[in-house]
Amino acid sequence: MKTSALQQARAAYQPKLPKALQGAVKVQEGAPTQSVDNQEEIKALFPNTYGMPLVEFVPGETENAKQMNVGIILSGGQAPGGHNVISGLFDQVKKLNPNNKLYGFLMGPGGDHDYVEITEELLKDYRNTGGFDLIGSGRTKLEKEEQFEKGLEIIRQLNINAIVIIGGDDSNTNACVLAEYYAAKNYGVQVIGCPKTIDGDLKNSQIETSFGFDTATKTYSEVIGNIERDCNSARKYWHFIKLMGRSASHIALECALQTQPNICLISEEIEAKDQTLNDIIENIAEVVAYRASQGNNFGVVLIPEGLVEFIPAIGRLIQELNDLLAAHGADYADLDKDAQRAYILAHLTEENRATFETLPEGVARQLSLDRDPHGNVQVSLIETEKLISDMVGAKLAQWKKEGKYNGKFSALHHFFGYEGRCAAPSNFDADYCYALGTSAALLIASGKTGYMAIVKNTTARTDEWKAGGVPITMMMNMERRNGEMKPVIRKALVELEGKPFKAFVAQRDQWAKETCYVYPGPIQYWGPAEVCDQPTKTLELEQEK
Ligand code: FBP
Predict the structure, then answer these.
(1) Which of 169, 194, 199, 202 to mutate to test the pocket of ligand 1 (most atoms within 8 A of CB)?
(2) Rounded to 5 degrees, what are φ and ψ at 489?
(3) Per-residue pLDDT at 443
(4) Alpha helices, DSSP H only, in 62-140?
(5) Is the CB of 426 under 6 A from ligand 1?
(6) C-beta of 379 in contact with ligand 1 (< 6 A)
(7) What is the best residue among 244, 384, 488 to mutate for testing ligand 1's pocket, by most ligand atoms within 8 Å of CB?
(8) Within 13 Å and on the Cβ side, how many CA atoms surround 487?
(9) Tell me, what's the pLDDT at 374?
(10) Which of 119, 125, 116, 127 minimizes the C-alpha distance to 94?
């Protein structure tokens, strides 16, 4: 593979490991755990993997690990650092026993069981790089018994003892279902998860952050900062920037804390305040009008991609559409576009029909298309940034007629998502992922299944980080998916009582009126720790003692 000079220099970077993982380790077990909610239901669904203790790795005598072969699967959207999870896993598996083997399953959970053996020769060009291209990824949902049984054929053929699934909340939920199934059948195959997603919504009392969030938000913040500087130089455009993140607004919030834009919408706040689309538009238009009155016909607005789902009236509509598509998906799929719209209008309740009819056709259509394999609306495909700016433009035009506004409004649109998902991992993500991979190997060696690898204390120096595992059932509750109640890992949305949101609220009025842009610049790999090794502001604020 041809590699760039930066990649070659970066390949030589040896990720820093927590002290506890540097030498021989032993497992320290805590007390039995409970799921975050619906304990009786979750316990009944996971009789073999419920209630297990938290584990931490501490320096000590490693028990003689038996020889093991491990399979690894990347699941869902790319996130910077995936290759370092594989590197950490590979190095630790080989350290435990050079005869151990690591197999990478190609193109994710739906990949027909094609595989490659991971060797040092193969891995060397991928260490500390972004992307998942070493083995590829996919969004197939692993949930059916026949998939589990089919998987077992290749597992037996390669004599695999454990599978590591690197994914977000949905993929780790499925990892747990698979762990339970193999445990119930006594197949002797362990399943370990790893917390991945740029969205930052896989976090809780045990998982401080999901990997990739750090690099992705720093990458977006660099570009937002560049746009702000352009905006502040030309002084003639309003930039509407949609940011990935699926339902949660963590990415938008983190980028706002880093770049101080004029406006950042937070979906969770909009839902809590029961705001309508019109409320949102008026709020933005007021800021535009105020800035225009000061001679500033420019600005930057950040929009989380999941926004529409959180506008309560649209959220209720999506819920009903989800149930409708789950129940009648087959009849509906065969209809043409116009007939689909008519079908939906005929089946919706009155309130939701009224909401559906007020939406621009493109948005309404997107809400009524197929969900992803996990039942999510594909929010990255909805052009919310255009919807919002068009409506703001219309509101300002109306105010102009009424003599309430006399500025110029020229809007530009951007969507940042894919640009950051495969960026070369920051030092934080490179180290964090390597430690997660190392922990996953140690969880396997200590016979665990149904656990997710975790690394904590991540705002301290790397050598003070703590590594271990959390039973996946501990993070579960029951939620409605595709029209049915299912056990799932609870998604972490932005907490309105949390410190990151409060820090944003304390400053946003000033950012709206004045021009307070901050230009973070590109991720740095070499140089002083305060430039190269800083975690996200979200993590710093959340972990502040
Ligand atoms: P994961 O939840 O799988 O980590 O994916 C994150 C994400 O980047 C979301 O932010 C975005 O909505 C979605 O993937 C886009 O999906 P796709 O890659 O299928 O276009």
Answers:
(1) 199
(2) -70, 130
(3) 96
(4) 82-96, 120-123
(5) no
(6) yes
(7) 244
(8) 27
(9) 66
(10) 119
Kindly give the distance from the C-alpha atom of residue 246 to the centroid of ligand 1, in angstroms, as a whole number: 7
**Distance of alpha carbon 437 from alpha carbon 524, whole angstroms:** 23
Among 233, 221, 196, residue whose Cα is nearest residue 440:
196
Locate tokens 């020889």: which residue?
A: 67
Distance 74 CA to ligand 1 centre (A): 13
pLDDT of 359 above 90: no
Cα 417 to ligand 1 centroid, rounded to whole Å? 8
pLDDT digits (tens, 9 = 90+) for 479-527: 988 778 999 999 999 999 999 999 999 999 999 999 999 999 999 999 9
With cut-offs at 50, 70 and 90, classify the pLDDT of residue 201. very high
pLDDT greater than 70 at residue 414: yes
Give dist(CA 120, CA 134) in Å, integer.
12
- Partners of 484 in the β-ladder: 481
Q: Report whether pLDDT(431) > 90.
A: yes
249 lines ligand 1 (CB under 6 A): no
Nearest CA to ligand 1 atom 18: 77
Structure tokens that stand for 67 in this block: 């020889």
Ligand 1, atom 14: closest residue by C-alpha:
77
Pairing label, strands 115-117, 101-105: antiparallel
pLDDT at 462: 95
Q: Is 69 in the pocket of ligand 1 (CB under 6 A)?
A: no
Neighbours of 350 (CB within 10 A): 6
Pick the atom of ligand 1 nearest to 75's CA.
3
Ligand 1 near 244 CB (within 6 A):
yes
Mean pLDDT, the chain, whole residue set: 94
Q: How far is the CA of 386 from the centre of ligand 1 (A)?
A: 20
Amino acid letter, 545 = K
Contacts 24+ apart (CB under 8 A), 175-179: 175/142, 175/450, 175/452, 175/472, 176/46, 176/49, 176/450, 176/472, 176/473, 176/476, 176/489, 177/142, 177/143, 177/487, 178/142, 178/148, 178/151, 179/49, 179/449, 179/450, 179/472
Residue 422: pLDDT band (50, 70, 90) is very high
The whole-number average pLDDT for the span 289-295 is: 97
CA distance 493 to 490: 9
Q: Decide if 199 is catalytic.
A: yes
Q: Is the pLDDT of residue 343 over 80?
A: yes
- Minimum mean pLDDT range among 48-62, 289-303, 505-519: 48-62
Torsion angles phi and psi, residue 435, rounded to 5: -70, -35
pTM: 0.94
Is the pLDDT confidence value at 24 over 90? no
**DSSP letter string over 288-346?**
HHHHHHTT---EEEEEETTHHHHSHHHHHHHHHHHHHHHHHHHHHHTS-HHHHHHHHHH
